[in-house]
């Protein structure tokens, strides 16, 4: 079974499109009606939906750090810095994660791209 992704609103549409073309299950914040919501709510929603959050927003790293320190569970975050990774590499690495890994592999942690 494939791992489902939840895309933060700042993720390039081309990444979402590329993943969907590769049969990766993706839901965007915009499609979920949570555009402009605070990061903690976005991460809570990803956890509620049992999806791995993908973001390129550095603020989520601080939120993950806070939750780890306070032992607040979350489904996991995959983070890629826009300035050091291409859209193609994001798509490739996220496809690999979605098709090979389980959500439990990412519980309460941050995975950085590129792999």
TrEMBL record:
Domain called DUF5615: residue spans: 5-81
Matches recorded under InterPro entries: DUF5615 (IPR041049)
Name used for this protein in its record: DUF5615 family PIN-like protein
Native species: Floridaenema evergladense BLCC-F167
């Amino acid at each position: 079974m494939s791992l489902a992704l939840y895309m933060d609103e700042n993720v390039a549409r081309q990444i979402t499109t590329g993943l969907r073309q590769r049969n990766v299950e993706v839901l965007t914040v915009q499609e979920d009606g949570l555009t402009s919501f605070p990061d903690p709510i976005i991460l809570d929603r990803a956890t509620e939906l049992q999806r791995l959050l993908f973001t390129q927003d550095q603020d989520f790293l601080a939120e993950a750090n806070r939750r780890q320190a306070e032992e607040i569970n979350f489904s996991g975050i995959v983070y890629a810095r826009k300035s050091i990774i291409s859209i193609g590499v994001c798509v490739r690495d996220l496809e690999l994660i979605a098709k090979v890994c389980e959500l439990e592999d990412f519980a309460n942690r941050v995975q950085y791209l590129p792999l």
